[in-house]
Amino acid sequence: MSFESLTAPASELPVVGVFVRALVKSQHDHSKDMAASIAYFSFFSIFPFLLGVIAVGSFFVDLEVLGSRLDQLLANALPGSAGFVRDNVEALVRLRGAAGAAGVAGLFWSASKMAGAVSRGINRALETKRTHAVYLSPLRNFAMTVAISILLFLAISVSTALELVAQSELGEQLALFWTFAGGHATSYVFVFVIMMLLYALVPYEKLPWTEILPAALFAALLFEVGKAGFVLYLDNVAHLEAVYGSVSSIIVLLLWLYFSARVVLLGSELIAVRREETSHVDP
Q: How many whole angstroms separate alpha carbon 141 and alpha carbon 39?
């Protein structure tokens, strides 16, 4: 029995049905293969991307402060493998030393392979056609990589500002609330903004915010819930070191990158399903 026939009853439900139909469409679009491609290119892109961020950020922020903020972001974005990524980035920073403008551009250019894989996956889900020349795609991917790095700089700035507020008298009064909910709220908002940015910039045709907003909210929520489940899985179920030995950290990173890619693509499928249904309703 096919996945589509199994989910047919649920697909007719008022609210849940649209998510079920998005899952069915993801099967037809081979989202598993596209997510694997994104995870592969992301794995090779994440280190040059972070090196580029550090190289640029070090001109504006003390390197130790920058490293501390990146550690916090990595811990939220890469559960189970933040330490592995941080240690390798620190080793690469020591080996490379200071990077000039050309070096930074080269790092972001290498990292743009990840943006290219994400672009192919999202546009395949949305069934949008490329409207620009093929030779412009690398420049477009490079621009998206720079845009994401700018967002990361903004997140670091917000994190620094929040710490300054926490050290003030007002911050002391709000410390209990921030300890309880602030960390999760910040993580969710950061992921939500990333999703909004992806769904706004990556598609070949401009999408209205009314289509982007629900998908970004859903994808960010699924990302946060999946992160909690992934940590529980690593702590209580998985025994990756017994199977993969010294490369278990790499496997954990690849698994999380694959899950993250599935979430991004599922949000795209949700947009596509809602667009198709709207087009059938409109005269």
A: 16
